[in-house]
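Need tokens for this chain, all 186 residues.
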Amino acid sequence: VPGGGGASALVGAIGTALGNMVGSLTVGKKKYADVEEEMWELKKKADELQKELLHLIERDAEVFEPLSKAYGMPRETEEEKAEKARVMEFVLKDVPMEIMEKCCEAIEIIVEFAAKGSTLAISDAGVGAAFCKAALQGASLNVYINTKSMKNREYAEELNAKCDAMLEKYTKIADEVFESVLGRLK
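Here are the structure tokens for all 186 residues:
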């Protein structure tokens, strides 16, 4: 550890922090008084998301240990096979999808920081969007490798569809933020 999930959570936390820095450099400036209250709200949300993503680094490591042990479980008898499948289904489920969800929330916040925040820090919003996109994509790979191993195919396909939808929507939004920032800097 960290594996791909934990590393994705870390990158997402850094991306979120970069967006939050735009907010920090916006509040208290007369030029941005009309968005000050909104910036404080966005900063509060970003602080919480950053903490959640940092916690998910640890959670990813926690679920990896039983997963690695599950791969080595005996599977000679039907009972052993069933127990291995049960353990694997339990540990494969939640963490990468939660990382993706938090990255999507972070991208939504960075959209606002980029649109309304201090132009002196706008590059940080662009970097934050790029990092959160990378984290989203990285976590998606963990979702897909996990769902591939799931016995409950209906549930696995449900997770895959949710993952597909998040990638479709939020990689485009992150790209739009990046391109907007790039266009404003060139």
